[in-house]
Amino acid sequence: MFSRKMNFKKYPSQELFEEYIYFRASWTYLASMQLLSRKSKSIPNYKCGFQYNPTVVIGGPNSNICLYMATILCTYKIPQLMYGSAPLRNIETQGVFFYKMFPSGSHQYRGILQLLLHFRWTWIGVIYLNDDNGEMFVHNMLPMFSRSDICFEFIQKLPELTFSNDAEWMIREGIEICKVITRSTATALLVHGEIQSMVILRMFISFSEFEGIQKKTKVWIMTAQMDFTSLPFQRSWDINFIHGMLSFAVHSKEVFGFQKFLRMKTPVSERGDGFVRTFWECAFHCFFPSSSSDKETLEFCTGKEKLETLPRSVFEMNMTSHSYSIYNSVYAVAYALHAMYSSSIKYRTLVDRRRGMLLNQKPWQLHPFLGTVSFNNSAGQLVSFDKNRELVAGFDIINWITSPNKSFFRIKIGRTDPHAPPDKMITLSENTIVWPGQFNQAQPISTCNDNCYPGYRKTKKEGKPFCCYDCLPCPEGKISDKTDMNDCVRCPEDHYPSQDQDLCIPKSIIFLSYEEPLGISLAILALVLSFTAAFVLGIFIKHQDTPIVKNNNQNLTYILLTSLLLSFLCVFLFIGQPGRVICLLRQTTFGFIFAVALASVLAKTIVVVLAFMSTRPGSRMRKWVGKQLASSIVLCCSFIQAVICSTWLTTFPPFPDSDLQSVAEKIVLQCNEGSPAMFYSVLGFLGFLAAVSFIVAFLARKLPENFNEAKFITFSMLIFCTVWLSFVPTYLSTKGKYMVAVEIFSILGSSAGLLGCIFSPKCYVILLKPELNHKKLLIRRKNLKVYAFAPN
Fold first, then answer.
1. With 50 as the cut, is the pLDDT of residue 351 above it?
2. pTM of the entire predicted model
3. What is the fold of 517-789?
């Protein structure tokens, strides 16, 4: 609510109305009718005496001026060139007479959109003039901004002054707009207006200071329809708010000789031009004397004042975009008239008749020539119209810089290209941009909240526009590598997220190799155990004629020791980078060798039991005790395992594979078993042999002392079964190269258990107690003949 104590007398409201009223387009009616009437009197449709015959009318920059012109001039089919924004009009009745020295408005709005997106200003305020063009901009163009993720904190319309008693109401509305701007968090403000909008905006900002409204630095973005305009009483007002402002302007170039032309314009040189004298008085604060009394009280204009001494807020020596459009309009008419007259001359031969016809040319006859005009102006720019009779040109992007003397400079920092793709239609020289002083030359940020940086994703705030959001960390396994991503994405399978979840890092390739401590340790352990097995085998071969070797089934002992030696060596198939051949041999070789070893143990155990039973008087088991039984057991068990392995290799053979999922940051090179069922069938058969051997050995553990090898087999099978029973859950719960290490530990542990438990007592006797390795010491007195339980 407004304070009832507001004193509107301190505002120049009456002076405001008197100055602002001349911007009202209805005054154009009078000027339009005067073009169609006598010089001294305005009587529509009646001419006598000296007559004006207007061929073309150039109007602007206010769109309503062009609209009011059209109401009268279109009746006479007079071509009209507009150098401001295009008014809303009836295409069929009025549009055919318009030629716009202003590029397509949609092109400008797309350029503004790209500018906002370029600087990532997604949270903006919009101020627009309360007219038809402003309403069209809000209803048609702003939705296009929203579709490109631009949000609006506020959309305010500038009040339109209609009568003098509306001045105080207009000031109230303006102060409210300033309060909205001050409270807003948006840094970028887009202003869509007309030539007079700058006057209104300056007034609102200045008047708000009287109400103690604190200024807040903003980056203003002005449309090309606007320009710097000042009323006389605004001359001393501060213009610092436009410092760092960005605006669009119809593309223009400096015209050679323009400043020289301006310097020639003086009240002395233009005595018949009352406009120059009026401008001179306003610009230099002086008066031309109209009577002798004036000389005593007022400062007179000498006519020798220099225009270049005026600050730019009063007068610009450089050609503005609007002036450049007027310049091109005049030349476009000249070229069109030349084309029309040249065409008329071809069909007329009599000079007098031709002159008469040329003087009586009708305005509508110029349309075909004006619509197709195309020429290069003195600045070297091509001037032409498109099929919609709009100027084919782009826009300049202007950076405004103010100086302490209340002057300003326009710096071109970029431009738009009407023929470029939408995402490349603007080019900017960011290094030359001067931002408002509060930002310390850092690019301003205009967002609803802080950006969601890489590693985070956006999530909507309830009840807020879509530009307002919270930031949540990416879930595990996903990353966001850009600012303000709507969702996090998963890395490719051969990459993993960084710790900050802002980039994907290539996974390193791992396998159990000889270059790492674990691989070296296992290889050395396998070699040591292999040499141990070979050493034991050598001992037994060397002492093959001793009773302790003969009496323990010599052939089975050699087979068992050889299979244990090979089982230790097969560990080297599990270390190193997996290849096709290695994967085919790894599990099948291990499975077959272990089957032979376990079959040998089983055969030794069965032979021990049968040998004990055959020593009883009248036993029929003696015929089963011999080499044939042991060999049959080994061959039968080995054949079954060979069939399983062969079936595995022919149906679903193992192959080299890479595991991308088990270890987060690694690619594990491994051998894929091909068929888990066949893999566990091989292990299952080994478990079956081990279980049978353990049960038989356990039942034979209490045989007489001569048959105590069953005790050693029992202990060895207990270790074997314990190792492999613990292998299964450990193997299934381990990932990566450690799965291979677990299997190697199981192979080495179970093989070492067999080697140690079965052969260490015998080696102890052979090497350290040779005196016990005699037949007479192996025979008990009550069983003098039982030493032959294990015939060779």
1. no
2. 0.68
3. Rhopdopsin 7-helix transmembrane proteins (1.20.1070)
